[in-house]
Amino acid sequence: METHCIEPESIAAVLELPAGHPQRVHAETCPRCRSLVASYQSFVEAKPVAGADLERARGKLDARIRADAARWKPAKTPARASWWQSLWRPLPLLAAVLVVIAAGVLWMLRQPEQSSLRESTSPSQTFTLSPAQVAADGSIHLNWSPMTGADQYQVRLYGPDFGEVYRSANLPGTSLSVDRAALPSTLPPTLDLTWRVFALSQGDVIATSDPGSIRTR
Amino acid sequence: MSASSNRWDRNVPDEELLRIARSAGDAGQRRAAATELVCRYRDAVYLWCFRYTGDVDRALDLSQDVLASVWEKIESFDGRARFSSWLYSVTRNRCIDAGRHVSYLLDEDAVAAAPDRAPLPDTVLDEEQDEEWLLQTIRDELAPDEQQAMWLRCVERMGIDEVTRIMGLENASGARTVLQRGRKKLRAALERRKRAQ
Among B86, B50, B87, which residue's Cα sits nearest to residue B67? Predict the structure, then answer.
């Protein structure tokens, strides 16, 4: 697949990619994308400019921000939460409670030592990804190092526009094979994906890997 | 006094503030998180707008528009992009919309010398061309530094000084010379195209 020019919204994500990732290489070599990256960096650095009268501007903007904040009425539930409101109906709620209890019992039976490990976990600990392998049939094989304190892992794959294209179930181990058929059929056969592993402890994310790259075929 | 409540450590990531602002929790806490997020980027947004306009009042108007749109969109922000690059994109688009057309073909001095009430010669000349052709020709005919200068000046509509600063040019004429060189090549390509038609 051709590497396309980056969208302004994706710049920060592209700059977080590993140095050799095709999209990052493109961003550093294409004149148009280099310009965008430079202008984004200039935006974030926010270096003072002669004549900008920043102190006066801060006073005015702060007053505006206070007024906007006072007017802002946050929704009682976030916009994207509406789908799970239905879970509070009696039957789904009962089913969910039973599943949680069963999962908790199973978890305690299988991994009784985990709780003490979790207590010593620092969120800043990191873990590493091995290079992704793509088999002849298009399936993707992913491995990563274990994370101290993690009892499960979740793998997420992102498409060229950094939209999520795949999310695994919570996995007890440190490897995963993804069939090509599990990815959206609208994706072209060859493309650059990004993947990340989320280390979980009792369902909470305790660490996130750096992004890795995958070239499918 | 700053609008920021100062209750958030600077090390709390943007994404965490965003998560709190969009959560179903206490409205006061959500408001405080959103306020901190907006305050973090207040200077960046304003300075960016000032670089575009070179005018304090216009920059204040533009940045207030941008910050108001953050309040409107913060709850529907889907988190696929980083907050910083999303806000950069909003600010950039607002400034580009507010900026005037910059010619791909005519040198800066020719545009500046145009009579006040006549249609600007750059607009007329550029409108006669197919923008896709212009952009493709920029990619095909211009050296990388010329492409970058043309992109920043004509598409991003940045001022010459800002283009000079971003490109790290240290010569006295800054980006002006690079742009002049690029435009000369574009005009030559346009002449060749006319002869071929």
Answer: B87
Say which of B31, B85, B144 has its CB closest to residue A11.
B85
The secondary structure of B158-184 as a DSSP string is --HHHHHHHHT--STTTHHHHHHHHHH
Helix axes B131-141, B175-196, angle to 10 degrees: 110
Of how many residues is chain B composed? Answer: 197
| Minimal CA separation from A210 to chain B, in Å | 15
* Cβ neighbours of residue B103 closer than 8 Å, sequence gap 6 or more: B111, B121, B122, B123, B125, B126, B154, B183
CA torsion, ordered A24, A28, A32, A38, to nearest 10 deg: 100
Higher pLDDT, B122 or A146: A146
Question: Would the CB atoms of A31 and B151 count as touching at under 8 Å?
Answer: yes
B101-141 residue pLDDT tens = 777 888 877 656 555 444 444 454 555 567 778 888 888 89
> What CATH number is given for A119-215 in this structure?
2.60.40.10
Q: Is A34 exposed, middle or buried (0-12, 13-18, 19+ CB in 10 A)?
A: buried
In chain A, where does the domain assigned CATH 2.60.40.10 lie? 119-215
What domains appear along chain B, each with residue ranges and CATH number?
Answer: 14-98 (1.10.1740.10), 108-196 (1.10.10)
| pTM recorded for the entire structure | 0.58
B56 to chain A, any CB pair closer than 8 A? The answer is: yes
Tokens of A135: 């088999």
d(CA B164, CA A10): 25
The number of beta carbons lying within 10 Å of the beta carbon of residue B18 is: 20
Instruction: Determine the 3-state secondary structure of A35 from DSSP.
Output: helix
Here the tokens at position B136 are 């493709």
B22-62 per-position pLDDT tens digit: 887 788 888 888 999 999 999 999 998 988 888 899 899 99
**Residue A58 in tokens:** 């801060």
The DSSP output letter for B153 is I
A152: nearest Cα among A206, A98, A101, A193: A206
- Note whether A104 and A111 are within 8 A (CB): no
